[in-house]
Amino acid sequence: MAEPIEFYFDFSSPYGYLASCQIDDLAARHGRTVRWRPFLLGVAFKETGQKPLVEQPLRGPYHLHDFARSARRLGLPFRLPTPFPFAAIAASRAFYWLEARDAALANRFAKRIYQRIFGEGQVPADAAALAELAAPMGIDGAALAAGINDPAIKDRLRQATDEAIKRGVFGSPFIYIDGEPFWGHDRLGQVEEWLARGGW
């Protein structure tokens, strides 16, 4: 059985959103599954000395334009939320709490979170908002809200972020195929070709 594709992302990343809508189907076409791995991009920015794209001179206005254009090309809804950028700590903790119980459901919940943020333009920034979002999926909202504040889950997110940075993850999305790194949703074509050809 082939190893899962590793999909690193931050819920505050528009390009991560675009990739999240494609990565599972792409992997399935090549007999792979996906290991979803949220991490905190802000911590990586401290390591690289970068700022969020939209806060960078010249690059910021371009990316604001490109987010929407890229979504239109894929036929995906896109609304930039307010505030933006934002910290996605609670959403990431919610994912890891749920993953420990049901990894497949956690992946679906991650997609729903992304849809709420960039498809609908709303940030579920706290435990109550995430619990409300989880309830229609059959997830115990009260348990999830408690889990977000569990010290063990806080440590799990810190560990996941540290592990990502040690591996060389510096942006979102960041994809590994059998150890081969690809950065950016615009590399998904290369990801697919790599899977089809077995590398080059």
From TrEMBL:
<dbReference type="GO" id="GO:0004602">
    <property type="term" value="F:glutathione peroxidase activity"/>
</dbReference>
<dbReference type="InterPro" id="IPR051924">
    <property type="entry name" value="GST_Kappa/NadH"/>
</dbReference>
<dbReference type="InterPro" id="IPR044087">
    <property type="entry name" value="NahD-like"/>
</dbReference>
<keyword id="KW-0413">Isomerase</keyword>
<dbReference type="GO" id="GO:0004364">
    <property type="term" value="F:glutathione transferase activity"/>
</dbReference>
<dbReference type="GO" id="GO:0018845">
    <property type="term" value="F:2-hydroxychromene-2-carboxylate isomerase activity"/>
</dbReference>
<dbReference type="GO" id="GO:0006749">
    <property type="term" value="P:glutathione metabolic process"/>
</dbReference>
<dbReference type="InterPro" id="IPR036249">
    <property type="entry name" value="Thioredoxin-like_sf"/>
</dbReference>
<feature type="active site" description="Nucleophile">
    <location>
        <position position="13"/>
    </location>
</feature>
<feature type="domain" description="DSBA-like thioredoxin">
    <location>
        <begin position="5"/>
        <end position="194"/>
    </location>
</feature>
<comment type="similarity">
    <text>Belongs to the GST superfamily. NadH family.</text>
</comment>
<dbReference type="InterPro" id="IPR014440">
    <property type="entry name" value="HCCAis_GSTk"/>
</dbReference>
<dbReference type="Pfam" id="PF01323">
    <property type="entry name" value="DSBA"/>
</dbReference>
<dbReference type="InterPro" id="IPR001853">
    <property type="entry name" value="DSBA-like_thioredoxin_dom"/>
</dbReference>
<protein>
    <recommendedName>
        <fullName>2-hydroxychromene-2-carboxylate isomerase</fullName>
        <ecNumber>5.99.1.4</ecNumber>
    </recommendedName>
</protein>
<dbReference type="GO" id="GO:1901170">
    <property type="term" value="P:naphthalene catabolic process"/>
</dbReference>
